[in-house]
Amino acid sequence: MSTNQPAQVAAGGGGAALDARQLRTVLIAVSIALMAVIASVSGLNVAQTHLAVEFGASQGTILWVINIYTLALAALLLPLGAIGDRLGRKPMLVAGLSVFGIANIAAGLAPTAEVMLAARAASGVGAAMVMPVTLAVITSTFPEEERGAAIGVWTGVAGGGGILGMFLSALLVDVADWRLLFVLPVVLVVVALAMTLKSVPDSRERSAHGFDSVGALVSVVAVAGLIFALQEGPERGWTAPETLVGLAAGLVAAVGFVAWEVRRRDASLLDVRLFRERGLAGGSITLLVVFGVQAGIAVVLFPFLQAVLGWPGLLSTLALMPMAVTMMAASGLAPKLAVRIGSRSTMAAGVALGGGGLALMALFVSVDGGYPAILPGMLAMGVGMGLSMTPSTEAITGSLPREKQGVASALNDVTREFGTALGVALLGALLSAGYRGAVDDRLGGIPPEAARTAREGIANAVEAAGGAGSYARNLIHAAQQSFVDGWQQAMWAGVAVMGALFVYVALRGPENAASTAAGDAGSTGPVTEPQPVAR
Length: 535
Fold this sequence. Notes:
Layout: E1 7-8, E2 17-18, H1 20-42, H2 48-55, H3 59-87, H4 89-108, H5 113-141, H6 144-175, H7 183-199, H8 213-236, H9 241-264, H10 278-308, H11 313-318, H12 321-341, H13 343-364, H14 370-399, H15 405-439, H16 448-455, H17 458-465, H18 472-508, H19 514-519
Antiparallel strand pairs: 1-2
Helix pairs in contact: 1-5, 1-6, 1-7, 3-4, 3-5, 3-8, 3-15, 4-5, 4-7, 5-6, 5-15, 6-12, 6-14, 8-9, 8-15, 10-14, 10-15, 10-18, 12-13, 12-14, 13-14, 13-18, 14-15, 15-18, 16-17, 17-18
């Protein structure tokens, strides 16, 4: 089908034909909506100090203000994605954008930490209504031969949007006021809402089965419990009662969810039997690992740029942009490469490049080498993640039927959220352990009080150096070198994980769909139901 020929919109029994220009408008609308949601995940991190001073709140409260958004978003993705399939994707997108926009306005005007916390939770609810629908609109609207390119744009925004949002947020905090952080998502919401109302077609699916309310509720408990444990473990401790309760509740609910869904079979919220397919399993595992590594890298990079290189927050955020740009560019190129060499080969190449980037950073990072020493590794990571994310997302959405595209999109998003939480928890723990293991041998002669503070982390060491007198330079040098040791430990662990993923993708990744995509390139007519990429 040529780009000028219309595509039939799957809208539960029929729909208007969309030409190339209209399809581009739809893609822009859902991409802007997705950007608003993604930018809000990480944007508030740059204003932690400002929030604490403004509200007189503890660090624990501030972390909850940041994390409650992700917790609500992840927990509600599956049920709200399924509801969007049934009630209509356009109405769900409009309602979600409205809730999200109003909640961000409330957050920007919040007079207390409690109001801010409630507003952030409401933002997470709105985001959970928006995020799965954006991808479901693409898979249900775009013709098969153009769907891959559209998903490439979507994955690029999903992957690089967080870094771009963090940079813009840091810019606003540095040049203006932290409350203006909420202006950016509100502006994006207004634009996306106007374009959605005008251009995005509605699509919904009829189902012969009732909504799986039990499965929806159990999935909320499972995801919320596990995400809570991963968020709180590094802060409270992995053996803290709250962490253990969250982990236990999440695991029990997850087992219960699987058992219930197997029993419901075709009437289930998510047919877990489909994970036996290469497409769904391979795509989910790849996204889990890739997003985990990406999030873990951010945990390592920011302290390196700020505490080791001494860069301010805005410059540190700007330093991540090359990785975000290459990731977004590679996401757009991935569908074309998949047509030529196959989805599995493209995913494997991306994973190999990502692992190679981690190895480069581990080999060449040093205090004296500075930013140029890690830039090649960052660029390789960006390209690798972009190449692996798009075919992985296509594999997930292609494994579920059209009437379950909201669920497929939500599963894709839940996998990303789990990967992010796992990466932050695990690579962050490895970095901390490596730092503490290395710094003790370098604190000889340092005053005991300053040494105790320095063992807690590199930021604490920099703060302690102010009162260490003539020992300040030695203290900072010891902390910086120890951080590099911890960096290398975390990076090599990431290389091992990516190596294992490469072997898995090479052996059990989605079957190559290149020949099918190429063969369909000249077809016309209505959008067909997405077919499983592998069985």
